[in-house]
């Protein structure tokens, strides 16, 4: 089951060389214009010459070969004036082990299919090794590597340098939370959901019967979604669009829930906009015709069922209105048979 209003491909998008230039361009544009787009899963392609000042957090899985590459990637965050960039790097334990072994450390390298040999050695970047072996302040270690002036301040730990954000070493040493050292407001990781409204008792007449009516209409909307996908999947902007986003399951559920509540195309358009359906302009009119056909279909079926119910009700009411005397006066089949036998005997005697 999916939560109502789920929209695949809007809150999270990709940015890789495999996505295509047009898709990546749209991702950067949506990052600036769509507040619901809050996560981008990217390769190093996003770190190479891409200007995206709206990014506030950067997370790196593992550390590149050099600290320069690490700063190039994590430095994407916090470039907008007045914002505070937060960066995190997840480092595998093997990197710490290599750094502890010394400047030369054995590494596994797959080259032309040959397996690792004992004499395979690779020199670890000195700045990376110093960063992994740092025990006081990671930011101070980076400043020493790049000789960021003034060194008498930049090489101090986070509290001594009065930094807004503490590194993980300083947070652990000074027993602080990630954001307790400054008063800059921090945006939540996701937008707050709308306030929960008081439950409204549904009207049975405006809801599809789950066992009889809903299974009749649902396949029609599923087939409509298939037609939309077949019509749009070869457009350049939809080259990497997931199949489920052409006509989302949440939208189908909303259409079924509101089939007997919406009576104008404008009201349907409001529903489609609430689900951010991207094909309203091109397929909204066809969807309205399909929606209206199914609405009339269900109403017609209910009308026929109501007529049949009225006949049965009338017959039952006539039976109920019968008086007790009428019921007692009704002929008993067994009594009728006895009377017939008496008449036959009487007739025989008379003939004799």
Question: Into which percentage range does the β-strand content fall?
Answer: 5-15%
Distance between the termini: 89 Å
Treating each run of at least 4 consecutive H or I residues as one helix, how many helices? 13
Task: Give the biggest beta sheet.
Answer: 2 strands, parallel
Uncertain segments: 105-114, 116-121, 180-186, 313-352
What Rg is obtained from the alpha carbons, in whole angstroms?
38 Å
Give the overall form: elongated
Fraction of residues in helix: 40-55%
Structural class: mainly alpha
Order of strands in the sheet with the most strands? 1-2
What sequence of helices (H) and strands (E) makes up the elements? EHEEHEHEEHHHHHHHHHH
Question: What is the tally of beta strands?
Answer: 6
Overall pLDDT, averaged? 77
Verbal overview:
The chain is mostly helical and about 350 residues long. It is about 45% helix and about 5% strand. The chain has 13 helices and 6 strands. The chain has helices spanning about 20-35, 65-75, 95-100, 125-135, 140-145, 150-155, 170-175, 215-230, 250-255, 265-275, 280-320, 325-330, 335-350, and strands spanning about 10-15, 40, 55-60, 85-90, 105, 120-125. A two-stranded parallel sheet has the order 1-2. Strands 3-4 form a two-stranded parallel sheet. Helix 8 packs antiparallel against helix 11 (about 280-320). The longest helix is centred in the last third of the chain and has 42 residues, at about 280-320. The N and C termini lie far apart (about 90 Å).
